[in-house]
Design goal:
Two copies of one chain form a homodimer. By secondary structure, the first copy, chain A, is of the alpha/beta class. Chain A is about 35% helix and about 25% strand. Chain A is built from eight helices and 14 strands. In chain A, strands 5-8-2-1-11-13-14-12 form an eight-stranded mixed beta sheet, sandwiched between helices. In chain A, α6 runs parallel beside α8. Chain A is globular and about 45 Å long. The interface between A and B is large, with 39 and 39 residues.
Amino acid sequence: MKEGITVVKIGGNVIDDAAALKRFLGEFASLPGRKILVHGGGKLATRLAERLELKVRMVEGRRITDKGMLDVVTMVYAGLVNKQIVAGLQAAGCNAIGLSGADGNIVTARRRSPEPIDFGFVGDIERVDSDLLGRLLETELTPVFPAIMHDGCGTLLNCNADSVASAVALGAARLAPTDLVYCFEKRGVLRDPDDEQSVIAEITAESYPPLKADGTVSRGMIPKIENALKAVGQGVRSVTIRSSEGLGDGSGTVIR
Amino acid sequence: MKEGITVVKIGGNVIDDAAALKRFLGEFASLPGRKILVHGGGKLATRLAERLELKVRMVEGRRITDKGMLDVVTMVYAGLVNKQIVAGLQAAGCNAIGLSGADGNIVTARRRSPEPIDFGFVGDIERVDSDLLGRLLETELTPVFPAIMHDGCGTLLNCNADSVASAVALGAARLAPTDLVYCFEKRGVLRDPDDEQSVIAEITAESYPPLKADGTVSRGMIPKIENALKAVGQGVRSVTIRSSEGLGDGSGTVIR
């Protein structure tokens, strides 16, 4: 497979907005070449858990995925959201196939250690089956991943969608040059957080430390950039952080 | 593909019983040769709809699948039940892959005419992609279908799981000799409904009319047998109606 592969990750800001999601799926379907979509879940799982009056346990500001919550995220992410996205992509002419990690055993995860904090049925990605990914891409299928993986022993695990996207991109990079695109609510990494026009065009391992030191890159953006630099260091050709709007227009912050 | 294909359908009596489901998945995983699983949904979707206080509209004793109910069955059948089955089969050493009809566009359905009764988002199977089915089976994947299909235009449709099983078996029969197995709560078609030992070993197009005329085959069994005879007439090698217990032991009523 000589042609490149694009892995795009979307989150709640697209999934929770029916009009934005429809526009995005049309733009994603129009992207040339082999591609893969990874999606988070949005607010629907939280709303469903509330309606079911599940007790949400939090530790240090993070939700515990107990058995009830695992069932809810499996229903919502791997069921409703995934199948609506796949059906929407089919309608847009893109031959999508939804895959949890258990499907074809394509992604396995390891349940996170219960020490020091037991987050419940939460996993970290262990292995992506590049061979199966390649066979699916060769038959012109477009894999669509929710962040629900499995441990290979019958247990489903809720994973971080950003981490799924970077693991899948690393798996794809073993097949062909791979570009990873993280869509979020801003147009890119901004030099001035109040100015949407101040997108930093490129960040490299060399240009990053001063941006972190002077506070241009701060808080939630730090793990995003550091994960992106790590992915690039491990073989992903580029990582772009950008808005979902106008996908394919070349805008956003490119990390290489 | 010379080797035969076995298509097995299970319903609520297995899905709703965790111990029965686990035993069944182990037996299914041990079946030799290429195989496909089709599953219904069980009572979980109804229970979830009740907990969400969805208004269940019934016409002539049949539930209307409105948008709220479609979302519930998509979550439960294509999400929770499908992924639990796939993860359970993976744990049993069977390389399962869950597929709604939208996934890979493998099964399309047509929304049922709103005349004389509008059942909502309910579909009848239109087309099964035998080529994709064959490619998946050749790579030793075991497709696992919920009864959630799509119309190709972005709408998911709730289908009858028995009909999905027979359509998938007909699609498989274009690839290789195919045997279809319907699991239900009895050991087979019984000559005496109170005697589980009175299983009729074989029913054919010739032996069926007298069994219907004398009332041996009655009520809910009539459409099952007639659908089975139709499937056999259209190219499925055999249809077996049996219990899920002891799958592969050759028991049950065989229609050919």
